[in-house]
Amino acid sequence: MSQPVASSLPLVQRLSVKTPFYLFKAMRPHHWIKNLVVFACALFALKFDLQTWLLLGLTFMLFSLVSSSFYLINDSIDVEADRQHPVKCKRPIAAGLVPIPLAIAAAVVCLVTSLVASLVISPNLTMALTAYALIQVAYNLGLKREPIIDIMCISAGFVLRALGGAAAADVVASSWLVLCVGLLAFYLGIEKRKAECRSMGNGGKTRAVLKQYSLSWLTRMESLVTASTLMAYALWTVEGARTDWMLVTLPFVAFGIFKYQQLSELGEGETPESTLLKNPYILWTVVLWVGTCLGVLLLVQ
After folding, report:
1. What is the 3-state secondary structure (H, E, C) of 88-149?
2. DSSP 3-state assignment of 187?
3. HSE-up of 170 (CA within 13 Å, CB side)?
4. Residue 79 Cα to chain centre, angstroms
5. What DSSP string describes 202-218?
6. Which pLDDT value is given to residue 206?
């Protein structure tokens, strides 16, 4: 009777040591960079007191946990399809490194903890997180298979992040900010779908919705949304910003959008967060844009 127990000990030890690491990896912490949008309203309102930024830091973590909970759920639902993908097959759940029941349990804990903790900061933040969670539920249950709507869900997620940050910082999110964030997120969603279509080819699409997209259609959508995004941002700089001097930041936005299109043509747009972190042109464009915005706002206040 002792032999089976002895032979099972190495397995138990291996799981106890490595499973938390693989679980954390399955939460995709590198995607948390998307949640930096929560800081946008406070930055443009020039609200830099310690309490505000502590609350925003906590808000960043709450959105990160909520988004990670749905990554775990989504990977658990799509496990069979992910195993057919040349890259997604290496994800911990698809690779069998994280049991699906454990992933679902961790997702529930992250989601409930985030919603409860948000009540301490602001009821409006709780509303934003709840709306974000409901969109993710609808997305995973079927909207991710509906063309156009799937990208709208992605865009709405970024808008809700910005609104959640505004609630935590106790500042008003202007309609201009909502419009610009929503359009930019929609643009990134289109670029992501284009890159996925290119990387998988017509014969190997594992994301169901890709079968309903074509590169020519996405290119037409890209042209329209790109023009709309640049126009909305340009109008904000002269109509919605504190000073017309914000117009000097427009070249950074234009360069970033068109540079990202070029990278998408080369097949690098499938993961926007990786492109931001790894491509020096995009990274420095964002840094210079933020620095210029802050410089202009501080000089004219």
Report:
1. HHHCCCCCCCCCHHHHHHHHHHHHHHHHHHHHHHCHHHHHHHHHHHHHHHHHHHCHHHCCCH
2. helix
3. 9
4. 21
5. TT---SGGGGG--HHHH
6. 59
Contacts of 285 (CB under 8 A, 6+ apart): 252, 255, 256, 259
Taking the C-alpha atoms of residue 219 and residue 223, their distance in angstroms, rounded to an integer, is 6
CB 125 within 8 Å of CB 164: yes
**221 neighbors 208 (Cβ within 8 angstroms):** no
Enter the pTM of the model: 0.88
pLDDT range class, residue 208, cuts 50, 70, 90: confident
Mean pLDDT over residues 21-32, rounded? Answer: 94
How many Cβ atoms sit within 10 Å of the Cβ of residue 258? 12
Q: Are the C-beta atoms of 44 and 177 separated by less than 8 Å?
A: yes
Token pair belonging to 53: 């930024």
pLDDT of residue 23: 95
pLDDT tens column, 87-100: 788 999 999 899 99
Q: Which residues contact 99 (CB under 8 A, 6 or more apart)?
A: none
CA distances from 285 to 129, 235, 290 (A): 29, 20, 9
Task: Kindly give, in sequence order, each residue whose CB lies less than 8 Å from that of residue 84, ignoring residues fewer than 6 positions away.
Answer: 206
Q: Are 254 and 230 in contact (CB under 8 A)?
A: yes
Count other Cβ atoms within 10 Å, centred on residue 182: 18
Residues 209 and 147 sit within 8 Å (Cβ to Cβ): yes
